[in-house]
Design goal:
Layout (H helix, E strand, L loop, with lengths): L9 H9 L3 E3 L3 E7 L7 E6 L6 H17 L7 E7 L8 H14 L15
């Protein structure tokens, strides 16, 4: 993911979480804040050490980055923090993708799409 699409600073994470706009399912918690200065979305990813060893946490972060790469054109101008829960470790990429998509759709952070549009891996 390009640098301009990332949230790295701790202050930015805290500012987004402070807005208390969030949504969760069994696998993810997302916090979001409307981004008025930048014309595209930005994403921060957080995975607790209790989720697993470093290779497992890194794999999950790669999945999230890949999701946002696929859905780049459908995402509104928001700053989004994705917190990955331990239950997400057992998912394959397709289920991971669909679960994250579900969370973003529920809060209308994804633009509308046509019927029967699914991931093609």
């Amino acid at each position: 993911m390009k640098k301009e699409y990332r949230i790295k600073k701790e202050k930015d994470f805290h500012d987004i979480i402070k807005t208390k706009k969030n949504f969760a399912n069994k696998h993810f918690v997302i916090y979001f804040k409307k981004n008025k200065e930048i014309k595209h979305f930005r994403v921060g990813i957080s995975v607790n050490k209790r989720v697993g060893k470093a290779f497992k946490r890194n794999k999950l972060k790669r999945y999230v980055r890949e999701f946002f790469k696929y859905e780049k054109n459908k995402i509104e101008n928001y700053d989004i923090v994705v917190i990955i829960r331990k239950e997400a470790t057992n998912l394959d990429f397709e289920n991971f993708y669909n679960s994250l998509k579900h969370v973003l759709k529920k809060k209308k952070l994804l633009k509308k799409e046509g019927k029967n549009e699914k991931i093609h891996i």
